[in-house]
Task: inverse folding
């Protein structure tokens, strides 16, 4: 990512303060960041704020009209950018984009560029719901270079509760990272991808359970990465630490039995299933609906096996479907992963070490080795879980491609 260049176009809305976090994160990740502030944006944050966070002077319309540049500034910036974020996108800038209007540095730069543009609108709910605004928003969908995220629902700064909040910075950062990885291609647009995430909880009584330290980060990264690449995503997840975007269909569960039911229901419609959840292997043999007092707790706990969901789905798999498992291992990760790939009738498996620093449960980083049923093997060095997710989606796409070449 170090050689990548992101241009951040900041619009006139209170959510401009959240864009500061995006600029700061990208710059710290080694990405070159430049910012353009519209006239209205400067009522909310200053060019000095953006300059400091980007480590580069921020641009305003004053620079646009300066005669000192050798080449016009909008052409320079438009050619420079690998991607552009417009956030917060106002109703006015949205209308200008829709109609190809260019009357300031930001809109001229958009027209002078060809890179992917991520749009993150924010406005009052009534403004958002206007037919004209909705028509403009839908019309931009027809232009492949525009990627759209949000707005989310919630409490707005105008004290309205409704749709109109800009999505959180972490979701913008994750989408931008995906765009830098893919160059904006929507290679999974025709796919329906079912993903499981997080751990399950097998209860003894309402307050005690057998669980594991899974936080769902890997499954969430997979869901976001697949959605960024155009897939229709369903995420079945146990208790997880982070919010899920409204654009991703989600089914929240707790016990393995609920996860099994949700996956069995969704599986027939899925093209791919990626099973990143850490499902318990056993559950207490009995469950008390009321909390057990300390003195009522058994001295030893009889256990029962939990059904192997992935193996069950492996037996139901149709020829067009692809099944991908995870094997969280300690020690030598490859032999058990290979064995699970075969035993569960998987197309691919991601083996990841949970006894190494910077990987596994709760970490935002991961590493591992991907294996497939054709014998391919790919090592993934330590990287963010989003990057690992893209690498796995690439690996499965390549497998599918090679399957269809073989059939021809
Ligand atoms: N899995 C599942 N249902 C279970 C247990 C595991 O669907 N009851 C899935 C996991 O989501 C993962 C894969 O099977 O994708 C491998 O899980 P893992 O826990 O590594 O392997 P197990 O088959 O449970 O074997 P072991 O615990 O003995 O290593």
Result:
């Amino acid at each position: 990512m170090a050689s990548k260049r992101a241009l951040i176009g900041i619009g006139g809305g209170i959510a401009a303060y959240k864009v500061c976090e995006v600029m700061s994160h990208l710059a710290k990740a080694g990405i070159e960041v430049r910012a353009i502030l519209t006239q209205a944006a400067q009522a909310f944050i200053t060019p000095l704020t953006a300059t400091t966070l980007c480590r580069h002077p921020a641009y305003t319309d004053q620079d646009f009209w300066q005669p000192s540049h050798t080449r016009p500034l909008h052409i320079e910036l438009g050619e420079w950018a690998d991607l552009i974020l417009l956030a917060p996108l106002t109703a006015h800038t949205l209308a200008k984009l829709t109609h190809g209007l260019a009357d300031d540095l930001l809109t001229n730069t958009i027209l002078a560029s060809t890179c992917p543009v991520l749009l993150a609108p924010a406005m009052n709910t009534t403004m958002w719901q206007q037919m004209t605004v909705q028509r403009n928003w839908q019309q931009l969908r027809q232009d492949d270079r525009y990627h759209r995220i949000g707005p989310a629902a919630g409490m707005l700064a105008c004290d309205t509760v409704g749709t109109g909040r800009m999505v959180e910075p972490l979701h913008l950062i994750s989408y931008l990272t995906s765009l830098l990885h893919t160059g904006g291609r929507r290679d999974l647009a025709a796919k329906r991808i079912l993903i499981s995430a997080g751990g399950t909880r097998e209860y003894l009584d309402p307050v005690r359970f057998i669980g594991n330290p899974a936080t769902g980060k890997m499954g969430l990264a997979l869901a976001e990465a697949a959605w960024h690449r155009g897939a229709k995503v369903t995420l079945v997840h146990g208790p997880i630490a982070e919010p899920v975007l409204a654009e991703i269909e989600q089914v929240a569960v707790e016990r393995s039995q609920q996860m099994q039911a949700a996956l069995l229901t969704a599986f027939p419609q899925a093209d791919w299933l990626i099973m990143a959840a850490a499902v318990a292997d056993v559950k207490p043999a009995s469950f008390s609906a009321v909390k057990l007092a300390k003195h009522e707790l058994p001295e030893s706990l009889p256990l029962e096996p939990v059904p192997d969901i992935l193996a069950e789905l492996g037996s139901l798999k149709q020829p067009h479907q692809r099944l991908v498992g995870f094997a969280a291992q300690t020690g030598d990760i490859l032999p058990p992963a290979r064995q699970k790939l075969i035993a569960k009738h998987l197309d691919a498996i991601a083996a990841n070490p949970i006894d190494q620093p910077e990987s596994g449960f709760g970490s935002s980083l991961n590493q591992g080795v991907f294996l497939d049923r054709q014998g391919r093997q790919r090592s993934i060095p330590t990287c963010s879980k989003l990057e690992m997710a893209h690498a796995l989606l690439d690996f499965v796409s390549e497998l599918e491609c090679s399957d269809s070449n073989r059939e021809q």
In short: The two ends are 37 Å apart (CA to CA). Residues 275, 277, 279, 281, 306, 308-310, 325-328, 336, 340 surround cytidine-5'-triphosphate (CB under 6 Å). The longest helix spans residues 385-407. The chain has two domains: 5-182, 192-407.
